[in-house]
Amino acid sequence: MNKLKYLLFALVLSISTFTHLYRIDKTFIFHNDEARDVLIVKKMIDTGRPILLGPQTSVGNMYLGPLYYYLMLPALLLAKMNPVGPAIMAAIFAMGTTALLYIIGTKKYGIVGGLVAALFYSLSPVMLHYSRSSWNPNIVPFFATILILSLDISLYINSPADIFLLFSEFFNKYKSKINPIKKAKI
């Protein structure tokens, strides 16, 4: 039974890898927001100075945190400044979400539940569309799934200084983008 479980997990991850990365260099989405993010990270690389403000929100003069830019940095460096690098990064986060959904589904509802959850996510046209773009909200499902898994694990551990609660709080802050920064007028 264990071999079957691992074989099905590998099959689901293979399907997810194929659907998320197939021809991504030809089909990735690159609009104004993605271009702005790439230019900001490129500026950070060229100047060697860290960015302290993230993308501006659509409401008022508020900014998100810069975490997404720091996540984009290795992807752009590995892709030699090719904008497909961050799109591949978003696809890898989507594949990670597929794996986490399989784990959560298997834990809660058995192998069939894990397979259904992971396959629905990895074959969903909407999720596939968004995983081909390096726009900052597109990796939120990964962090939301980690939050759910961390909270589920922390229910079984009775330690007050539980590391999983720390992780879940960190990922919740990123996921919900609670701390927009208001830019001071000078």
Keywords:
single chain; two-stranded antiparallel ribbon; globular; 2% strand; 186 residues; mainly alpha
Instruction: Give the terminus-to-terminus CA distance.
Output: 65 Å
Secondary-structure content class: mainly alpha
Task: Note the overall shape.
Answer: globular
Strand arrangement across the biggest beta sheet: 1-2
Number of helices, where a helix is a run of at least 4 consecutive DSSP H or I residues: 8
Number of domains: 1
Count of individual beta strands: 2
Say what oligomer this is: single chain
Rg estimate, integer Å: 18 Å
Helix content: 55-70%
Overall mean confidence score, pLDDT: 83
Strand percentage, roughly?
Answer: under 5%
The gist of it:
The chain is an all-alpha fold.
Describe this structure in words.
The chain is globular, with a radius of gyration of 18 Å. It has 186 residues and is an all-alpha fold. The chain has one domain. α3 (32-47) crosses α4 and α7 runs antiparallel to α8 (163-176). Strands 1-2 form a two-stranded antiparallel sheet. It contains eight helices and two strands.
List the helices and strands and how they pair.
Layout: H1 2-21, H2 24-27, H3 32-47, E1 62-63, H4 67-78, H5 84-123, H6 125-130, H7 140-156, H8 163-176, E2 181-182
Antiparallel strand pairs: 1-2
Helix pairs in contact: 1-5, 3-4, 4-5, 5-7, 7-8
